Amino acid sequence: MLLAAAVVSTPGWLLIPFVLLLACIALGPLFFPHVWHRRYPWIAAGLGAVTVGYYLLQGLTTPMLHAAEEYAGFIALIGSLYIVSGGIQIQVKGEAMPWMNCLFLFVGAVLANVIGTTGASMLLIRPWIRMNRYRITGFHTVFFIFIVSNVGGCLTPIGDPPLFMGYLKGVPFFWVLAHCWQGWLVAIVGLIGIFYVFDRTNFRRAPKEIRAIETRESRWIFRGLHNVLFIGLILFAVLQLPMGWREAVMVAAAIGSLWTTPRQVHQANDFNYEPLKEVAWLFVGIFATMVPALNYLQANPPPLGSDHAYYWATGALSGLLDNAPTYLAFLATALGQNHLAMDSPADVFRFAAEHPGTLEAISLGSVFFGAMTYIGNGPNFMVKAICEHAKVATPGFVGYVVHYALPILLPFLALVGILFFSKWRIFG
User: Fold this and answer.
1) Phi-psi domain of 199 (left: phi exceeds 0; alpha: psi -120 through 50; beta: other)
2) Of 14, 257, 386, 406, whose CB count within 10 A is highest?
3) Separation of CA 402 from chain center
4) CB–CB of 113/239 below 8 Å?
């Protein structure tokens, strides 16, 4: 990841492009939507160019090369899973009753550990929209992001990018399952329980006549299932192939899916490239401008003395930065405090064995808090873009944070922190 780059002195003003980009993402669609939707590629690329230009003029090419490599891997994974999952049509028969929605979200949370939060999100968001089409609201989109796109994927390194980076650094593959399953279960059951309260109220408001029509017209549909093989190929590339070959195989899988999927399936899914385009351009700017922010964090690590502090520190930054580099930043901090090296797999293995509570705090903090904003984890923006294209009620950046993340998710994650990492903890 980006932390492989050498830490360099970061002037304070170089953090401004990152702050401006976050402000534009948050406020642009709210205050100047027409300009933003036409010009966001130029804004993201322009602010990223300021950071890239500074590093190149200073002769500091290594940080930018690492950022470019990570962006290429990120967009290859996001893009290939988006294209391949767009070739699978799933439709659920029956009325989307609250208990069915809860079961769907639980299945999505489990599946996120097998094909990743990105794969599960891209595969299930369209069926989620279809099964709730007559009563879908903003909270359906938001809780899908909470559960399937983020919290669900903390049981395996495949599940979420931060955990995969830990695995590459030396954390044993099954360490996450052995140490984080209780946190996963508490978080998933708790969030689904909160969702059930909202959804039951929403369900009762739906007119019975419309519910009856939707139930009669619904049916089971599974088309394009051969694309599951392409998803498997992508996962094989992620786990087994080196950089370069990995991205090439992902691209090949996407092309193979496009060639072999009937046009009718893409039409039924309302498949197009606009959501992928938006994510690709915005993360060009994010990956470039967050390099100095991460360098500053490495050069000025916060004094963290407890697992609870690591949970909150990792979580706080995971909502503002991509959660994978945030995970690595605090993993490096914890290793340094214990006189261990990030570049030594043996040291990382030893840290995981001797300090499981700290690593669990970093893992849960990065994965769970990635749901605090749209930019916390790659699938978040993709789900938002797909829902907006489908004309589904979707909160903007500010609305997401103010109406859902702060009043609902943050207090719940605070409770998780108390239960697992505070002096009053019950688990662990």
Assistant:
1) alpha
2) 386
3) 19
4) no
